[in-house]
Amino acid sequence: MNNKPKLVIIVNGQGGVGKDTLCDYFIKCYPARKYSSIEPVKKLARSCKWDGSKSDRDRKFLSDLKVLLTEYNDLPFKYTIGAYENFLESDKVIWFVMVREPDEIEKLKRCIIDKYGGRCATLLIRRADILKQYGNMADDGVYDYHYDYIFDNYPPIEAAQYDFVCLIRNIEKETG
User: Fold this and answer.
1) What span, in angstroms and rounded, lies between the C-alpha atoms of 126 and 113?
2) Using an 8 Å Cβ cutoff, are 108 and 77 in contact?
3) pTM of the full predicted structure?
4) What gap in Å lies between CA 87 and CA 95, rounded to an integer?
5) What residues contact 144, with CB distance under 8 A and at least 6 apart?
6) Are 66 and 104 in contact (CB under 8 A)?
7) What does the pLDDT look like over 35-71, one tens digit per residue?
8) Euclidean distance between CA atoms 91 and 134, whole angstroms
9) Which of 8, 170, 5 shows the shortest CA–CA distance to 105?
C-alpha cells in the first residue's frame, strides 16, 4: 500500500494561458481533480448580478471582492481548505488548486505542508504571447512569486498536453 501523502499542485498563470485546458486534460487521464480559490467569490458575485464574464472590469471586481472577503473573514481560504479536506477523502491522488495572489499561494502551501503533512508544489503556466496588464492585483501579480515549476505552454495543444502530463508525473516523483 502507498502511504505517500496526496499531491497538491498550486497552479497560477495569467488569463488565457491554458491552465484549465491543461489541468482538465490531465484529469481525463489520471486520478486528479481541480479547484479554484475564486469559487466562493464567484458565487457571491453572482448574487450581485455578475454574469460570469471575464472582461477586465469583471476580473477587477472579482479580485477586489476576494481581497475584501480575505480581509473580512478569510472566506476564500477557508473554502479552499474545506475543498482540500474533501480531496483527502476522495480516491484522487493529485489536486490542482488555482490561486492567484502570491501571499495566498504561500499561505496555502505552508498550511498543506505544516498543518496537514501533505505534499505541495507551485506551478506557473505561461505563454510568451500572453503578457497583459489587467488592472487588478490578482492578475497583475502572477509573476510576483517564486514558483517551484514553470510550464511554457506553446501550441500545438497535443504537444503541450503531452509535455504537461510529463511535467506533472515528474513533479509527483520529485515531491515523493
Assistant:
1) 25
2) yes
3) 0.94
4) 7
5) 102
6) no
7) 999 999 999 999 999 999 999 999 999 999 999 999 9
8) 37
9) 8
CB environment 70-106: b (16+ within 10 A), e (fewer): beeeeebbebbbebbeebeeeebbbbbbbbbbbebbe
| Residue 27: closest CA among 93, 81, 90, 85 | 93
Q: How confident is the model at residue 1 (pLDDT cuts 50, 70, 90)?
A: very low
| Residues 98-134 pLDDT 10s | 999 999 999 999 999 999 999 999 999 999 887 788 8
Long-range CB contacts (within 8 A, 24+) of 110-117: 111/81, 112/8, 112/84, 116/5, 116/84, 116/88, 117/5
Which strands make up the sheet holding 119-126, listed edge to edge? 32-36, 94-98, 7-12, 119-126, 149-152
Q: For position 25, what pLDDT does the model report?
A: 96
Residue 3 CB neighbour total at 10 angstroms: 4
Element (H, E) at 97: strand 94-98
125 φ, ψ (degrees, to nearest 5): -105, 130
Under 8 Å between Cβ of 76 and 70: yes
Tell me the C-alpha distance between 17 and 8, whole Å.
20
